[in-house]
Specification:
This protein has helices at 5-28, 156-159, 176-202, 211-240, 251-254, 258-278, 285-305, 308-311, 315-346, 349-382, 392-419, 428-456, and strands spanning 37-41, 46-48, 54-59, 68-73, 79-82, 86-88, 91-98, 105-114, 120-129. It is of the alpha+beta class. The chain folds into two domains: 5-30 and 173-464, no CATH class; 37-131, Immunoglobulin-like (Sandwich), CATH 2.60.40.
């Protein structure tokens, strides 16, 4: 590999991030948190004397009708899905849903839609229709109050009460644990892909041709495509309200969300990379690395488009920071694995020492990028820092910072202990055990951090909870410092 190639790859990465950020800035318009119901007519808690024929929803952002479902629970406790929702005269942030004829009593109407980042959002509006006054024949002169006393025990309101209303909409919701597993596995697969390529370019050129690493690379590409399809089905399930395996018909609607489209693009990019890496032989190094880097950056960008970086405020900054963040994480954690399990135990000192020193520089740069981009994302997503510990997001974020600090402390102490010993080529073999132990420990802690991150991004940010209607179906979690 030529000495200028790493610099060219770095410039290509920066340029690609700038292009992605520019495209996002042009297409995204103004900043966006998750969609929020601002008001409804009838309003939540209203007492009506006449049954309404429609309900009007007003959101703070445009509502894609193909991702919205409305479920009615009437005074008898019967539940039905309402059809025919359309945008109102005020624009695509207003939705009008026709209502059937309603009996007097408590009524609950639950809305559900999927946000651009694939998170299901839901809320509920409850109102009551008053019982009409009984019609009576004009009283005669002989009628006494005792004879005319009503017996209300058999009226409709007595049949059902608020406690009899179903608080759910009957829609299937993929368990949070399953969402976490899919996201965690996708993290590992994409980090393996990008990490192996970055390690080949910047740390050890032999990584790209190592048989075991090539097997991992091939399987990770197929895993990325397969997991992307499963995640696309989860978004389709959130739209249809059915189980993922019954939601193939909603895949088209799923691709209208940023997350769904990102998963579809991820599938294409992963298969394209597999063809380039394993089916075609590109001789010229610059052409090869350019052809591999572009879909690799695209894979990283799908994380941004499938999450909060695209859907929250400052999307151009968020997407660029997200791509850099995940690239740095992949370079660090995958580099740890390759150096710890392959370079140290299976190479000679003339290969080992330069590779370890190059990895130390890559790791230092990666940590700096992780911290910087993590801070940027935290400012974008957290909101009020005084509310940090009030929600699960803040607790996870604090846990990540603590684990990351421990990882950096262990890495720094161990490398200081063995770094100067690598200057003696004849004594390298005596110290590789300590170095490998340090690197393996860092790698294990890195996997813990990735697991925490996967849990944090699986549901909407706490700052986007709405006080109108019911809360989201999943616990509100949030984001960053190192994914």
């Amino acid at each position: 590999m030529s000495a200028t190639l790493p610099r060219r790859l770095a410039l290509l990465t920066v340029a690609s991030c700038a292009v992605i950020a520019s495209v996002v800035g042009i297409t995204s318009g103004t900043a966006s948190a998750h969609n929020t119901l601002l008001s409804s007519d009838p309003s939540d808690g209203a007492a009506l004397s006449v049954a309404p024929t429609q309900i009007t929803w007003v959101f703070d952002k445009a509502v894609p009708l193909e991702t919205m479902t409305v479920t009615l629970t009437d005074a008898t406790g019967a539940r039905s899905e309402l059809a025919g929702s359309s945008h109102g005269a005020a624009g695509d942030a207003q939705v009008v849903t026709p209502l059937p004829a309603l009996l007097p009593g408590p009524v609950s109407v639950r809305w559900r839609l999927v946000g651009p980042d694939g998170h299901p959002l839901t809320g509920r509006v409850d109102f009551t229709i008053s019982t009409p006054p009984p019609t009576t024949v004009a009283a005669t002169a002989t009628t006494t109050p005792a004879v005319a006393a009503p017996t209300p025990t058999t009226t409709i309101p007595a049949l059902v009460t608020e406690s009899s209303l179903d608080q759910g909409d009957g829609a299937y919701s993929t368990p949070t644990l399953m969402r976490w597993v899919l996201r965690y596995a996708s993290y590992l697969a994409i980090m393996a892909i990008v990490g192996i390529l970055l390690t080949t370019a910047y740390v050890w050129s032999g990584a790209g041709g190592h048989p075991m690493l090539r097997r991992i690379l091939s399987r990770s590409l197929f895993a990325t495509a397969g997991l992307g399809f499963l995640q696309l089905l989860v978004v389709a399930s959130d739209i249809s309200g059915k189980a993922p395996w019954s939601s193939f018909g909603s895949i088209d609607a799923a691709t209208t969300t940023d997350a769904g489209m990102a998963f579809a693009i991820r599938i294409v990019l992963a298969l394209t990379m597999w063809l380039l890496l394993f089916q075609y032989r590109i001789v010229h190094a610059d052409v090869y690395w350019t052809a591999i880097s572009l879909p690799g950056l695209g894979l990283l960008a799908t994380w941004a488009f499938a999450g909060h970086s695209r859907s929250m405020r400052w999307p151009a900054v968020g997407v660029a920071a997200d791509v850099a963040h995940h690239a740095a994480a992949a370079a660090w954690i995958a580099g740890l694995a390759i150096v710890g399990w392959i370079v140290i135990p299976k190479t000679q000192a003339d290969v080992l020492v330069p590779a370890v020193r190059r990895f130390s520089r890559v790791a230092a740069i990666s940590v700096a990028i992780l911290v910087l981009t993590g801070l940027v994302q935290t400012v974008r997503l957290v909101g009020n820092p005084f509310d940090l510990l009030d929600v699960n997001h803040g607790r996870f974020l604090v846990a990540k910072i603590v684990v990351l600090a421990a990882m950096l402390g262990i890495a720094n102490a161990n490398r200081r202990r063995v770094d100067h010993r690598l200057d003696d080529p004849n004594g390298v073999s005596r110290h590789t055990g300590v170095l490998r132990q340090a690197i393996v420990t860092e790698f294990a802690i890195g996997l813990i951090i990735v697991g925490i991150t996967a849990a944090m991004v699986v549901s909407p940010p706490a700052s986007n909870q709405t006080e109108t209607g019911a809360p989201p179906t999943t616990d509100p979690l949030l984001y960053y410092i190192m994914s």
